Write the structure tokens for this entry.
Amino acid sequence: MPDIVIRAEGIGKRYRIGSLQTGYQTLRDVVVDGARSVFRRGARDRGPEYIWALRDISFEVPKGQVLGIIGPNGAGKSTLLKILSRVTEPTEGYAEVIGRVGSLLEVGTGFHPELSGRENIYLNGAVLGMRRAEIRRKFDEIVSFSEVEQFIDTPVKRYSTGMQLRLAFAVAAHLEPEILLVDEVLAVGDAAFQRKCLGKMDAVAQEGRTILFVSHNMSAVERLTHETIVVEGGRIVKRAPTSEAIDYYLTIGMEQMGERLWTHDEDHTPSPFEPVALRVIGPNGAVASQVPTAEPFDIELEYKLTESITGLRVGIYLSTSKGERLLTSYDTDDLETFRSRERRPAGRYISRCRIPANWLNEGRFMLGFNASSFGVRSYFTDEFALNFSTDGTGAPGSQWPEARSGPFRPALEWEILEAVN
Amino acid sequence: MTVEAIPAQKHIIKPSRAWLDLGLRELWDYRELVYFLIWRDVKVRYKQTLFGAGWAILKPFLGMVVFSIIFGRLAGLSTDGLPGPVFYFSGLLPWILFQDGVSKSGMSLVAGRSLLTKVYFPRLAMPLASVSAGLVDLGLSFLVLLGLMIYFSTSFGGQWWAAPLFVAWGLLASIGVGLWLSALNVLYRDVSYVTPFLLQAWFFATPVVYPANLIPEGPWRLLYSLNPMAGVVQGFRWAMLGVGEAPGPLAAISFGMTILILLSGVVFFRRMERGFADVI
């Protein structure tokens, strides 16, 4: 039996909603609240409201395993990592972690802008738990991994974001912890850098270290892990081999039957833009969770503007089931529409777009919703709001009963010419 | 590959209930981090300033000039028979250590929030490092004090060797108050506004610009000695310059208060620590 290096039993974390939103209180708030509760005792005193960000989390991780953690936004994945790295305490439950824990929670944490790259390597290393001798020994390796040799004595505030990122990842990657917690660090940086990071994590895994890997990037999870936990609503709902877990996770959204609705609490922070629904409309005009690719179908965004917005664009993200973005499209992409809809008055709207026939391949896709005014403000974003699947009956090439790879299956215009020799 | 750092240890993660776990052992395990945080604070302190570390000297020096004019010339307060500049400067040294330490450590957690919410380390390290970084400033301005003493040909006190003890005492007082303020500041940002007033009032309750014997004997003196810094400043002057009374029962009360503030500060800090990452 392999050694268990992480054992969690019934971990739960409760937050107070009020303090979660405001972040901190001022003394005046406390005095005012206190006075209020004295005068209005019993009346509409709702008391503090709590939410459980995590509940009943129990699992074990054997030494050397690379375990994926996936789940929708707000499911509690990051909270779980924070508890395991001891940044925050659980409200209930018990966990044992054996060995040095390193976190790649957010790259660049602990950098001081006024200090040089060299100084920051030492500082950041110390923050992450490295000894001075250890940092000195790995210094050259870190510098060459980060590719910032020339600027190593320049203050970090003069670095580009990319350089800061590389330097930070380089330090963290050389930490050599027995247990590495990774939270969505690959979301940043260019493709080459991401490849490098993935490669480094592969190498770390090869060395027999234990890794907990949180990501929305399903292909990265699939590539790096063999087993994955699905967290939803603060609970572990599934633990299975990665491909099975990813499938399970993606079907969580399938129950929504081609439609995603948003409800608004009255005491929610007011926004001029309120999403109402995101729908996939099949060829027969009804909401559908599966549409044929051989016919065109519609995607409908319904929303409410509580005040008029200038320069608003409402649009969709289309991604593969692995989370790879295929396209982004907005309702005011067309120049004419863009000009005529410069200012959208308050009211209820539907923006609808048509996905042409013979365009997508058979498979599962994810739809996202975005509303923003370019360069001004992003009102609403949900990258993976809805899943739908496509049926390839009658698609180009369906005379051959084989699966076609790739997300697209367009009817391209082909010409076959008799070549003259 | 070998991992030579903090030995493979078992961490138990559970809601903590203990009241009196000071966590000093763990702080010791992380001593290198404390060292690096001090080093950072020292390095960063005078970055992008014209005078750089010169400020460590200029600050007490300018204070001394102003006090000499206002309290010495205009108000005509006694300086215990010492040349004004030496008297004020010797009081300002431990005072500035305390003042900078308290205000910097009070802000330390909030300023370091990005660290606090991302990485685990004993939180005590932050205010501790902020206070300790002030020692470098003190060292520099100490040289100026020596210069002033030579210039005004003031003789050393017989107990000059005890001066570091009073500096250490000042450090403890500063850490104690800093722990209280930094933990409170996480919850209530009012602390940032209150601290300057607190320090201003504290300054006048400390014998920096006047000798302690200005305070009438009896209950007033007793009340006065509850101020830890009263003991520190008086003691430092006594040790360096041999003026004022030798530390006696009143100094003991002052020291007792320091320890009380420090211990309660650590307990309070540890108690609040659990929620830091959630509320900051």
